[in-house]
Specification:
Elements: H1 6-18, H2 21-27, H3 32-46, E1 51-53, E2 58-60, H4 62-93, E3 95-100, H5 102-107, H6 109-119, E4 124-128, H7 132-141, E5 146-150, E6 158-173, E7 184-185, E8 194-197, H8 202-211, E9 220-224, H9 227-235, E10 240-244, H10 245-251, E11 256-262, E12 267-275, H11 282-297
Parallel strand pairs: 3-4, 3-5, 7-11, 8-9, 8-10
Antiparallel strand pairs: 1-2, 5-12, 6-10, 6-11, 6-12
Helix pairs in contact: 1-2, 1-3, 1-4, 2-3, 6-11
Coiled coil: 25-88
InterPro entries: HTH-type_LysR_regulators, LysR_HTH_N, LysR_subst-bd, WH-like_DNA-bd_sf, WH_DNA-bd_sf
Organism: Methylobacterium bullatum
């Protein structure tokens, strides 16, 4: 491919558009001598004169008149192409998408994102606050760069790093008979109207697996899909529920208390999930590190 003297073309267009060397040189932040050198180099390469210069005026030669509209169109199109590519680059750099289970998103993300926003004020953060299984699917499909979710079975195409472990607690009204207990057992809850987190949620799988056959001994009266809904029903006097401690903290509901549950004690591990072999963008990597540091400190 033949080399194109873009600097010479830029010098020629500037002289032609400004009508002289003085203003053309100033517009390019060049000396007149440097501008003249660029033009001469282009003319020598082409083998024709493009600018006719006298002591009084500057004019285009026939070759210059022929070149001007063609060169201007090409430079304008190239400039527009560069602007488009820069804009696309900014969009890629300035958007970070990640998944996060709702209990983490509601209570802890605001603190993390507030600090993150001070460092990256122009970044659009898109949070996919979906279920644990949906977040796994989003990361696997590339819809999210990473996810904050409940650790479960290993996936061949994903890497999961644990960042926090939390216990399940009983949530009940402050005037409930078990509210003042240091801890309660699942057996003590068999007579209570229980509100369970159902469906294919990670919390549901942990409880059913942890209780085994005793799961059917519980008096499950209501089934919901979100911890916030279960808490609202407890607040409304419909029963009690067992949820992760962070889910209770995210609700900010007065009049309710959380009591540790034993025999068996159940817990869940929160982890950062990424696609195996795929590096995070610099912004996503910074946000992921901020989330890990936050949970390491609490």
């Amino acid at each position: 491919m033949e080399r194109i003297d873009f600097l010479g073309i830029q010098a020629f267009l500037s002289i032609a558009n400004w009508g002289g060397f003085n203003r053309a040189a100033a517009s390019l932040n060049l000396s007149q001598a440097a501008l003249s050198h660029r033009l001469k180099k282009l003319e020598d390469e082409l083998g024709v004169k493009l600018i006719a210069r006298t002591t009084r005026q500057v004019s285009l030669t026939p070759a210059g008149v022929d070149l001007l509209p063609k060169a201007q169109r090409i430079v304008d199109e190239l400039s527009q192409l560069f602007d488009t590519l820069r804009e696309e680059g900014r969009e890629k750099q300035d958007v970070v998408r990640f998944g996060c289970v709702p209990t983490i998103a509601a209570c802890h993300l605001p603190v993390i994102l507030r600090a993150f926003g001070r460092t990256y004020p122009n970044v659009l953060v898109r949070v996919l606050d979906h279920s644990a299984t949906a977040i796994i699917d989003h990361v696997s499909a590339g819809d999210a760069e990473f996810g904050i979710t409940i650790m479960s079975a290993q996936h061949y195409d994903l890497d999961i790093t644990p960042i926090h472990q939390e216990a399940f607690v009983l949530v009940c009204p402050a005037n409930h008979r078990l509210a003042a207990a240091k801890a309660v057992t699942w057996s003590e809850l068999q007579s209570e109207a229980m509100i369970k987190i159902g469906g294919q949620t990670g919390n549901h799988l942990i409880i059913t697996t942890g209780l085994g056959r005793r799961y059917t001994d519980m008096n499950w009266v209501y089934e919901v899909h979100r911890g916030t809904t279960a808490i609202g029903m407890v607040l409304g006097g419909l029963g009690v529920t067992v949820i992760p401690r962070l889910a209770f903290q995210s609700a900010h509901q007065s009049g309710l208390v959380a009591v540790p549950v034993r025999a068996p004690s159940l817990s869940r591990t929160i982890g950062v999930v990424t696609r195996r072999g795929v590096s995070l963008s610099p912004v996503a990597d910074s946000l992921s590190r901020a989330i890990r540091d936050y949970f390491a400190a609490i």
